[in-house]
Amino acid sequence: MSPYQNRKTIVAGAIILAFAVMAFRLFQVQILKKEYRVTADNNAFKFETIYPARGRILDRNGEVLVDNKLTYDIMVTPFDVKEFDTLAFCRIFDLDTAFVHEKFREYRRYRTRIGYQSLVFKRQVTGEQYNMFVEKSFLFPGFSGVPRTSRTYPFNAGGNLLGYISEVDADYIKAHPEYRSGDYAGKTGMEEAYETQLRGEKGYSIYLRDARGRLKEHYLDGAEDKTAVPGVDVTTTIDGVLQAYGEKLMKNKVGSLVAIEPATGEILTMVSSPGIDVSQLSEINKHYRDLVTDPYKPMYNRAVMSPQPPGSVFKLVNGLIGLQEGVLTPNTMYGCHRGYVVGGLRVGCHGHPSPINLYQSIMMSCNAYYCYVFRSILDNPKYNSVQEGFERWKDYTASFGFGRRLETDIPGEKAGTMPTSERYDRLHGKGRWRSISIISLSIGQGEIGCTPLHLANLAATIANRGFFYTPHLQKDTPESPIDERFKERHYTMVDTSHFADIVKGMELAVNYTGGGATATVARIPGVIACGKTGTAQNPHGDDHSVFITFAPKDDPKIAVVAYVENGGFGATWAAPIASLLVEKYLNGEISPERKPLEQRVFDGNLLHKVRVRRR
Amino acid sequence: MPELNYKKLDWVVVGLYLLLLVFGWMNIFSSSVKETGFLFKLSEKYVMDLIWMGSAAVIAILILFVIPSKVYPAISWPLYVLMVVLLVAVAFVGKEVNGSKSWFAIGPFSIQPAEFSKISTSILLAYLMSKYEFRFSNPKDFIRIALVIGIPILAILLEKETGSALVYLGFLVVCYREGMTGWILVAGILAVLFFILTLVLSPFAAILILTALAGVTTGYYRRKLIPAAAVTAAVVTLLAFLPRLMRIESLSFLGRLEPEVWAALLTGLAAIVLTVSSMIRRRSTVRNLMMGFLLGLILIFSVEFVFEHVLKEHQRARIEVLLGIREDPMGVGYNVHQSLVAIGSGGFAGKGFLGGTQTRFDFVPEQSTDFIFCTIGEEWGLLGTLFVLAVYLALILRLLASAEKNKDGFVRIYGWCAAMCLLMHVVINICMTIGLMPVIGIPLPLLSYGGSSLWAFTILLFIYLRLDMEEKSY
């Protein structure tokens, strides 16, 4: 037995203690601390996004308006790039060598920040270029291509309506946290309105990677991957053929052309002119500067964003209110001698027979008649004051949708303006204004602004004899049903029985051959169309030409408004344009006797009349 | 020479040895196999490892059955000298790997002499300490042993292989077992402790703690624990207020010196007075304690110098990361961070054989050599890591117990040396991977990939097994 034997026990105890410390530490690291497991996942898994095909946009007849085409983004991982043949590379992608050198100077400058990341080198190269690249990709280590879908437009119609998609920016991601950098989203038009249906759901593939970010293998052979769910096709109510025709009619004119199917509220055509050509949409980034600096504002959807005075078209509304209020009957006769004169005030009118009844007043668009009607509404003794009468009148107009948003599915829709008592109080002193003070409202002038869509909706309401469906762009299909609010009838405060009289007046305006009718230019062979012209006074230049119409009279299939800025009389441009659209829709073609009219419209160029602010 | 009785061979040790080899190979395979699956090519580590194992088996058989045990004491000096020469030589002509010149390149193979010098040192220590007249109290013997352990350490430090040098400190435990005073171990542990305290807290705080420790220990040995503790507490409390006193205007002259200098001057003066008085009164314990205290003060003041000027930048950084002074998970802390992530992600039962994502894909550096424990932690979970700990603990304790049973001092001491080499490697390596020690490159015995290490530990263990078998055959 050697001395110091007890020391082996001390040493053994110390060894066991050391192992216990290590065991405890392992327990702590492997069981207690969770964060290591999370870091491990982030370390090892690379989630590669699979982008879904975006839904297509179809017209009401199944015609494809917006489709997808496959393009490729060329990605670069600067870390993996070796020396390569810049010239050959540039030849494939049609690039300038200076561009490539500049890019790589940049990568070198930010190399620490870039690390092993891949960056987009060039967006949206064509399939052809991509194929050439793939053949020679071994020459270009570090470069790769990822498929991306971009938009293509088989049908040249509806640029403004369809809208464009573009890559989301930082602000957009902030507002829509479900998006990631590199995603695309609809920014205007239908692409924006139906973004949630169109975009689909992104999927991902999980790859394992090593510490240098190199992909190693497909994790579990893809068992944990999520496949992308393609976006749902959206069918629009637009008739592609009619839309294209409408755009042709509105070429070189500033204004809007809107057609609604009265029985459903479906928008058949919505032209805002000048608009965006579809060829510019798919490469919006390239054209964006030109588009926003264009003095005619092609990005601006006038049909829903540009409130203007409606002019004489509004007489229909006043007539309806008068009938409902009992201050007007179809046989009420008023005299007109080139205008309405009270004291120092005079509302001028054109020369026409006198006195006239309600039908004739619509047919000939008499200003004086509606001054009487409007005053009798506001000065009705059953109301205590003009103000009360005015509020009542305003309630009526609101029931037609004026002065408020119709709540359509069109982005950017404006409410338009209707005057308020407060406004007149401020203008004239509280309670010190009378019906005569605001007489211009009787003929749709003054403090009243409604969008072309409002007027198209008015045409549809009259066509329906008293109700409307909220106009909308999405067609109801089993795959993507529309919102319930689009299936609801909205009645105005005017009894449906009163509409027949107004319709009769509108019929005469188009079809009366005895003389005096304002809209005979809109007569369509074989179809009884109803219409009303308007000439909206414009202090800044030529008057705006307005026309609303629907046809056929007894079973209306289409209600249209044409609003041509600086077009002069309603009958000059708006009536021909609107009626040609109706004829095209109902008959499929323009009758031979109206061909010269059609040609005149095609040739018409009013752009020089429009005062624009050049930037 | 008596007949060898192979029933006396320690089959438990052989079994544990084989267990570690097999488990080690599985993990080397897992951490180095490519997607292509098993390939019988020499360029694959797991194939190379099989060759190392085969050659190790040949060596083991030669040692067990062919080489007579008598040669070991006989060649102890020449072998030791040869190894020291090789250690020094490699520092000048060796191949540089990861900043240290510790490898001899012989054709495609590399040999690390530091792995083998452990064996020669163990044999020489066993030879010297088992001599009948050997006493640690004899200064000549003490110095001889100190040199035998110290020279290889210096030579290895010359190669910048800090890890292997640390292993030699394990021999101090053997010395302790053989009669060296335990104070040397205690002093060593205290020195490390105060080094850390000084870095983590401050020199001032370290002086206060040292003062408290010295005061209480002195009181304990003088059997006046309670009064000594009271006095110490009062002194330490007063000293603790020193920095605040210095802020008082009328005492601003104190500010000419740093607080730790004041504290050191005051306590040091007291310690010198006590040392002198204890020498006069021949109280050697108090004298030793006070001299220890003074040495401690010197240590604390030299920490900054050692840290800033003696240690290399990467060593400094590793220590700072370990002590939490610096956080740098992508830089110096990368290895430890990734290693912890790999081990931690294993959880209780692990991700299964070949299921690791961290270790297989190069997140963890040196995953089949120094960081093989990460693969085990990730793929086998806590069950695997505890299993490995248990096997090592069993092996080490078995060696100690078996060594103690030997009547021959040479065999016993050699057994202890082998066990301590194993222990140091295991503790340093595992503590490094789980963030309890700074990163020190040192393999995990019998598990890590590497021929030198495997051969060295095979030789180390099987020499003992042969000695032990022969001794017990009597």
What does this structure look like?
The complex is a heterodimer of chains A (615) and B (474). With 615 residues, chain A is α+β, with helices and mostly antiparallel strands. Helix content of chain A is 35%, strand content 18%. In chain A, strands 2, 3, 4, 5 and 10 form a five-stranded mixed β-sheet that branches. In chain A, strand 11 (255-261) and strand 12 form a beta hairpin. Chain A starts with 5 loop residues before the first helix and ends in a 12-residue tail after the last helix. Chain B has two domains: 6-180 and 321-472, no CATH class; 185-310, no CATH class. Chain B is built from 18 helices and three strands. Chain B has helices spanning 11-32, 45-66, 71-93, 113-129, 139-158, 162-167, 170-177, 183-200, 203-221, 225-240, 242-245, 259-280, 284-310, 313-322, 334-345, 372-404, 409-433, 451-472, and strands spanning 95-97, 100-106, 109-111. In chain B, strand 2 (100-106) and strand 3 (109-111) form a beta hairpin. In chain B, helix 4 (113-129) packs antiparallel against helix 5 (139-158), helix 9 (203-221) packs antiparallel against helix 10 (225-240) and helix 16 (372-404) runs antiparallel to helix 17 (409-433). In chain B, 42% of the residues are buried. At the A-B interface, helix 1 and helix 2 of A face helix 7, helix 15, helix 16 and helix 17 of B.
Q: Report the mean per-residue pLDDT of chain B as an integer.
A: 84
How many DSSP-defined strands of chain B? Answer: 3
Number of domains of chain A: 2
- Largest beta sheet of chain A, briefly? 5 strands, mixed
Main interface: chain pair and counts? A-B, 38 and 43 residues
CATH H-level homologous superfamily name of the largest domain in chain A: DD-peptidase/beta-lactamase superfamily
Radius of gyration of chain B: 25 Å
Summed up, the domain count of chain B is 2
Q: Compute the number of helices of chain A.
A: 23
What's the β-strand tally of chain A? 19
Percentage of residues in DSSP E strands of chain B:
under 5%
> If you consult CATH, what is the topology of the largest domain in chain A?
Beta-lactamase
Radius of gyration of chain A: 34 Å
Low-confidence spans of chain B? none
Structural class of chain A: alpha+beta
In the sheet with the most strands of chain B, the strands line up as 1-2-3
Distance between the termini of chain B: 10 Å
Q: Kindly, what is the distance between the CA atoms of the first and last residues of chain A, rounded to a whole number of angstroms? A: 108 Å
Q: How would you describe the shape of chain A?
A: elongated
What is the makeup of the main sheet of chain B?
3 strands, antiparallel
